[in-house]
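Deviations from the work plan: none for this task. Representative record:
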Amino acid sequence: MSAKHHQPMLCRWPSTIWDVARVAGVSVGTVSKALNGRGQLREETRSLVQSAAERLNFRPNNLAQCLLRKRSFTVGLISTDSHGRFSIPLLQGIEDALEAVGISVFLCTAADDLARERQHVSSLLAKRVDGIIVTGRRTDRRPPLDLGRSRVPLIYAFAQVADPTAACLLPDDLGGARLAGEHLARLGRTRIAHVTGPPRFEAVRQRQKGFRRALEKEAIAWRPDRVLTGNWSEAWGHEAVERLLRSRPTVDAIFCGSDQIARGIVDALRERGVRVPEDIAVVGFDNWEIIAAATRPPLTTIDMNLHELGRQAGCRMLRMINDGSTQSGVVRMPCRLVVRRSCGASFAGFAQAAAAAVPGRTAP
Amino acid sequence: MSAKHHQPMLCRWPSTIWDVARVAGVSVGTVSKALNGRGQLREETRSLVQSAAERLNFRPNNLAQCLLRKRSFTVGLISTDSHGRFSIPLLQGIEDALEAVGISVFLCTAADDLARERQHVSSLLAKRVDGIIVTGRRTDRRPPLDLGRSRVPLIYAFAQVADPTAACLLPDDLGGARLAGEHLARLGRTRIAHVTGPPRFEAVRQRQKGFRRALEKEAIAWRPDRVLTGNWSEAWGHEAVERLLRSRPTVDAIFCGSDQIARGIVDALRERGVRVPEDIAVVGFDNWEIIAAATRPPLTTIDMNLHELGRQAGCRMLRMINDGSTQSGVVRMPCRLVVRRSCGASFAGFAQAAAAAVPGRTAP
DNA sequence: TGCGCGGCAGAAAAGGTTTTCCGTTGCATC
DNA sequence: GATGCAACGGAAAACCTTTTCTGCCGCGCA
């Protein structure tokens, strides 16, 4: 037993495998085998080593392990989402997938600062991460991450990239919007408007397209002049209501590009004495609980399943790490309709109307 | 030049210092010195090595460096904040402080899952992080992080802990509430209510105390029956308005424990035809932009300076790492009043009233 | 010419772990 | 009693970088 360990309670330096070997009176190789269940050792030796390790509070130096294995069992997540609204659920999903196989996930933020992003990438590559996942605000396609000539697995999750060969996971905006359209149609709404964000977002265009398809499928007239694009704010929701009620007072439903817009719309409608959902039904997008649940009435909305998206990104990353496969291409993950009160799914009159409008379907 | 590098464009394995040495025709020691500006080398040799390194896309293996230096130049941030509302600004502040000195920060989330928290800690310790910062939702004091017998620097930032010897950074809730109270008092409000969250949160108690002190200092009667505690939701704001207007219809200002509560209150007041700020002024807490700026009128509120709090946590962590000092004790960081429209600071009548109420002070 | 010294680069150790390859011991079998 | 074998544990290499120590070479000075 070394002098260092006469008082092993609180050590300045963590104890090493050599310390354990000395205390247990065996060689370092034996310690390694005992602790990892390898090789053929007497049970006696094994427990001897184990108790020594425990006594010394030994924890293998991950740095040394990784150096040897040429892998760090770590995946980096680079985010440009400054609120965490989207990246935290994603991170948790990724952790769910990777923690199980002993890979840890670390988030670094690069809030739109390209220099910092480069620094993060450089740092992650130097740390020999097994892979990098990029996420961030979804305007239109971001420039691809500059990995130098390195060959680490790279996935874009909830982020679009201007590189068709990249692996990319996105929510199925089109399908999500279709869910919203179908839901409204089945509730008997026929004069439906769409109030959404800036059209330079691909998501905006996708959602509009999906919504249009749903209406056409349900034989509802698609009127381009019922589509209003603006920004993502509540204020825009207010303004849109003003415009809508002025120019087309016959609207009976509004599908919104985000929950924030939807909230602005619901508030503005209420102030004008328009009842939601009786007079106008509203569907949001995002299922941002803090907004959607606090709206009065609470918002029916589309959930992008970010947690599941993260899980899938983790799984895909795992395959890339293990196979060395490239897994390129865009995958769209399904969205989910979350029914609350803002379109009166349980409102008898509309339920009947829905049943009438869609033969073969019964009201819930 | 090794066979491995006949096609150096895309390497399965990152090149090592040996590869560079071989290509440059020097020894590994020389490469290290050339690249790090150490030792005495001819300028010629230095640039020879540098160009070789560049050609091979060489990036020193951080694992090996850390192994040697017995430090990882990494700090872990463990968060239990499942929305990221608080931890992302904090993370960015910490990054600001530490990135400058070459330390990277990684966030891992442990959304109230004690097992996962332990796993994260274990993983961070194995990776020999230089320090750990804990953050998370601020109910009352959380149990201290179990570090085993390890001795890594540990800081709680925006998280309270039931260990008086721990290093702990918190916003000055008391001072923040005092700012709110003083602001309202100076605007001439005298019958001020306080609607806040669950009293089991220490922050709730602190804010109440600070608010009380401000009123007493301004010679405004402190009425315990004007304090209403509930939960953190908008719905509670609505309910509180109902109660307030029923029992004490003479209230002329409300200080809220959070922006969500404030928003519920402002909405409810507007619906009842009570004008904000003319009839009742409202101050929130948190400066959660997405809520505060979207409220009508936009909320005057208290900002906890989380970014700065993070920066300070980073600096303090740096001191602990460098000195090996313990830095125990709670430090409170000042809050900041953000004036928007909800208490009419720029409303002439109240500005005059404020000037009258507080002699020696001029209206803005 | 010989000595010393400055300038420069290489050799080697250290850092902690895993794994492969060997060596030793004890036992059984012929 | 010699051979073989199984069981067990040790030695050493490998992972990659940094740093210290050492050695070589050429030049200046005595």
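Residues 16-18, 28-29, 31-33, 36, 38-39, 60-61, 63-69 of chain A lie near DNA strand C (CB under 10 Å from a C1').
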